Amino acid sequence: MAQRTYNGWDELFKQEFAKPYFIELKKFLTEQYDSGAVYPPKRLLLNAFDHTRYEDVNVVILGQDPYYNYGQAMGMSFSVPQGVDVPASLVNIFKEINQDLGRPAHIVGGDLSPWANQGVLLLNTVLSVQGGKPNSHRGKGWEQFTDKVIEHLNNRERGMVFLLWGRNAYEKKQLITNPQHLVLTAPHPSPLSAYHGFFGCKHFSKANEFLAKQNREIIW
Predict the structure, then answer these.
(1) Which of 6, 75, 129, 197 could form a cystine bridge with 40, CB 3.0-4.6 A?
(2) H or E stretch including 184?
(3) What's the rounded Cα separation, in Å, for the pair 109 and 40?
(4) % helix / strand / coil in the chain, to the nearest 5?
(5) Residue 120 — pLDDT band, cuts 50, 70, 90?
(6) Residues marked as catalytic
(7) Residue 2 pLDDT > 80, yes or no?
(8) 4: pLDDT confidence band, cut at 50, 70 and 90?
(9) Which among 168, 159, 137 is positioned nearest to 62, based on CA atoms?
(10) What H or E segment, with its residue span, contains residue 122?
(11) Where are the alpha helices (H) located in the chain, listed in sequence order?
């Protein structure tokens, strides 16, 4: 069987997959998937990377952990498959886009794959969750892995935009030290916090302005 490739992320993944923390994480995930509901489905754990090549990343949207209800999580932060009701956090993201840009997001349903295909890495700080239990896989090793992803992107010469939403995402800010990147932070877009600074953050217009100044196609 041919060895799987990872869309330009191979060098980083090869290094991380061999480290003790990731080997322990794999054991933990095997136990979790064998014993009950874990989201997203195992085949979609690295879906964000499958959709967005390393070389193509222009924007990183960093969330917390996957949706914890059946059928919602698809391995990309805030995105849900076609036909699934749009979750409240994503509804609020669409509201902010509309308010910020004066037009809708032009996304069908809640599947954000079109953004991913344009170079938006839809990354959570933790890439799996036990059904019905938010943050249940926190502290199991995913944070170390996503730290390395952020550091890997930070070292790139080409500037990009990091949108860090929520406390868990904000904790990654210290990893982004390259001054040519644009780092924007806001509360999480969930109904519990969206009115405390996410609404009105204007992250989408700011990201577009940054990309346009670098002669790259805008996303929104």
Answers:
(1) 75
(2) strand 182-186
(3) 18
(4) 40, 10, 50
(5) very high
(6) 65
(7) no
(8) confident
(9) 168
(10) strand 120-124
(11) 10-17, 20-35, 47-51, 88-101, 113-117, 142-154, 167-170, 203-213
